[in-house]
Amino acid sequence: MPRKYHIYGMGNALVDIVTEVSDQFLQEYAIEKGVMTLVDEARQHQLVKAIHLPSSDMQCGGSAANTIIGAAQFGARCYYSCKVANDEMGNFYHEDLASNNVDTNLSHGAHEEGITGKCLVMTTPDAERTMHTYLGITANYSNKEIAIEALRESDYLYIEGYLVTGAHSRAAMIEAKQLAEQNDVKTALTFSDPSMVKYFRDQMTEVVGGGIDLLFCNEEEALLYTRAETIEKAQEALKSIARSFVVTLGPKGALVFDGNNFYSIQSFDTVPVDTNGAGDLFAGAFLYGITHGKSFEEAGTLASLAASKVVSKFGPRLSAEQASEVHLQLFG
Fold this sequence. Notes:
By secondary structure, this protein is α/β, with parallel strands linked by helices. It has one domain: UDP-N-acetylmuramoyl-L-alanine:D-glutamate ligase. The chain has helices at residues 23-28, 41-50, 63-74, 88-99, 148-152, 167-182, 194-199, 201-208, 219-226, 231-238, 278-290, 296-310, 320-331, and strands at 5-10, 14-20, 36-38, 57-61, 78-81, 102-104, 117-123, 129-134, 154-160, 186-190, 214-218, 245-248, 254-257, 262-265. Helix 3 (63-74) packs across helix 11 (278-290) and helix 9 packs across helix 10. The two termini are 27 Å apart.
């Protein structure tokens, strides 16, 4: 009998503020380009004030949320476990999840006192995204956010690597993974960002534990985590921690390992405008694919095409109509 959800996601709830900036702006404010940096509210407010906000857009985000919404737009039944505050941004976040057909542990009127997290996504003319994140109340993410019954009724647990930075959120990652394993739910993890494996490698290894079913990472993350000198050596090392994995290679496509065979996934020609969310949508489309009868190679091709579409526009998502067109292009 089919389970209620294809994918149960857990991660930070962040309202994304997506805007365009110049390289000079990054230099002027001493911002490290191309990575996610955790900041306090004052620093984020300073940058928001300095940016011309009419060019920005807001939507519910966070790495895993973007993945889960992407999977839902392709047709997957999804659940997202997160934490928001009882403020305007928290209500906005909850409503945005619902409008994208994603079930959640959030309840109207039952959010805790605090400030909902926000992520300032700064895109430079070369289409690279740089993020400054104020976690707000999601810094207190804990096992209280785990919806046990929803997790048990899912095909896959998808864990956001950004949660590794906090002791309580890391404990929640480990507990959810254990619950999944006890209930025959497959486990998937994304490293999320090079900084997570560069500065929290030991903590990430603790989460990986005895291994996971499916790992998502990019080339830099794979090299950093395995401490390998080449991607060929890294992919062999990843076999010891993940039964299957995906390594995204940017414009070179992706490398997919299904547990037995490696597949080289082609990239699709596109004019990059904003790389924000490309990896997240890749994971969402891929998870949709493997939970809907597609092979790992087919799922990888779908994910690659979806990622090529999202980098050609601003923001980390496609519309449901665009997702449908991507699926139709490949599978009719």
